[in-house]
Amino acid sequence: MAEQEIDELKKEIAKLKKENEDFKNVAKSNSEKEYLFSKRENEYFIDELLSSNKLRPGSKDAALEILNYATEYDLGILQFSEGESLQQKVKDFLNSIPAIELTMQTEKIGGVAHFNKLTKERRGYGILDGEIETPEELDQRIQRCMQLHNISYKEAFQKIIGEENNE
Length: 167
Description:
Residues 2-33 form a coiled coil. It is a single chain. By secondary structure, the protein is mainly α. The chain has five helices and two strands; from the N terminus they run αααββαα. β1 (108-109) and β2 (112-113) form a beta hairpin. The radius of gyration is 31 Å and the shape is elongated.
């Protein structure tokens, strides 16, 4: 009887080990699926940021890499190569962001922006007093006015013409 019980217990242990292995495989498979889904979700998020001009195209790869590291951290599978760290990745990303240029708001004299050379009304449009514009420049100025004041093209045109008539 004892040998029969031992054999039954060995069979039971083998069965439980197989079930445990199956559960591990299913969990690993689900984890991989979740990771791949999250990576795809990160790509869509980065594409949305790009299309809404909240992220510069040159920063896309670094931003996606950092977002994927955050995903891996959340899933408990974060791994870096030797000598890499998340802190360094974030620093590299932040250093890759180009400086913001205020060319639409300022006049450049000798490579230096001189915002105070513009009258108050003209500061938002980057046009100096007495400067003559081409139709393309006027259109760009109207576009900037539309964005700045969140108004229609016609309203922006009237606002600009009104400012010029008041001068």
